Amino acid sequence: MAPSKNTAREVREARERLRRYNARQAVHTQQVTRRKRDNIIAVIGVVVIVALATLTQVFYFTGGPGKPLPLPSSSASATPTPTATPTPTPTADANVGAIPSPSVAENRTWTGDLTLNKVALGISLDGAAAPQAVASFVTDTKSGYYTGKTCHRLTTGAGLLVLQCGSLTGDGQGDPNYSYGPVENAPADGVYPVGTIALARSDSQYSQDHQFFIVYGDTTLPTDGGGYTVIGKVTSGLDALQSQIISSGVAASATTPTDGPPAIATTITAVSVK
C-alpha cells in the first residue's frame, strides 16, 4: 500500500528538521571549539606579555638606573686605548683615586644651578645626609669637571624615569682612576621621588664616580645591593627639562626604544654650588 501524501510530506519535514538540527549542532560545536581555541590563544598571549614585561624590568633593574657600562679594564671599549700600566678597578671595599674628604661637604645644605643645554635647574645638595658623595660632587663642580660633559642616557620605561649625566668618556663607562663608596642616604623603600638627584653606580657599592642621574618621574628601584646614593634634589626647572629634552624621548639609534641616548643631545653647559 503506497504511503499517503500527508505521510510522505511529514517524512520530508522530519528529515528537514533533522538536517537543520544537525546543522545547528555543527555550528554550535564549531563555535565552542573556536571559543576554546581563542581562550587558549588569549592565555598564551597574556603569558607572553607578562614574560616580556618581566624580562624588561629585570633588564632595567639589573642594568641599574644609570648603571655605568663595564670599566675599560674589564670590558673592551669600541676604541680601546693601550695603557702602559694596569688600570685600577674598584673593589668591593676600597676607594680608588684621590677621593675628597667628606669634610668638604661641611655637613650642610648646598644650593646652586645645573644647566643642561639651555635648561637651568635649581639644585639643593644634602651634605649632612651624604657627606662623601656631596664632597665629590662639590669638588667636581669647583674643578670644572662637569662643564662640557654630556647626559648620555635617558630611560622612559614604566617605573624607571631618569636622565643620567657626567660620564668621563660620554658613553657611560666608569672612570677607571676614580671610584668610591659605600652607598649613602639610599631610601629604604627604594622609592626615588621626582626631582631626586642620585649617583649612578655598577654592581659594587664602591663603583660610584662622577656620574649622577636626575629622576624626572617617580621611580622605584631595587633595594638589594644597597640602592643608590641620594645627594639632593632639583628645586626648579623640571618642567622645562621635560618639555625641552625629555619629551623628545630616546634617540632612534638606541638599542631599545625606552633606554638610550636622549634624542636631544644634552650637555652640561654650566654648574655651580655655594
Task: Quickly list its features.
alpha+beta, two-stranded antiparallel ribbon, 3 helices
Describe the model.
Helix content is 29%, strand content 20%. It contains 3 helices and 12 strands.
Secondary structure: elements and pairs:
Blueprint (H helix, E strand, L loop, with lengths): L4 H59 L45 E8 L2 E8 L4 H13 L6 E2 L1 E3 L6 E4 L25 E2 L3 E4 L12 E4 L3 E2 L9 E7 L1 H7 L14 E2 L5 E8 L1
Antiparallel strand pairs: 1-2, 1-12, 2-10, 3-12, 4-5, 4-11, 5-8, 6-9, 7-8, 7-10
Based on CA atoms alone, the radius of gyration comes out at: 31 Å
Strand content: 15-25%
Topology as H/E string? HEEHEEEEEEEEHEE
Secondary-structure-derived class = alpha+beta
Amino-to-carboxy terminus distance: 119 Å
Any low-confidence stretches, pLDDT <50, length ≥5? Answer: 53-63, 66-91
How many helical stretches? Answer: 3
Instruction: Count the beta strands.
Output: 12
Share of helical residues: 25-40%
Major sheet, described briefly? 10 strands, antiparallel
Average predicted local confidence, pLDDT: 82
Shape: elongated
Give the strand order, joined by hyphens, for the main sheet: 3-12-1-2-10-7-8-5-4-11
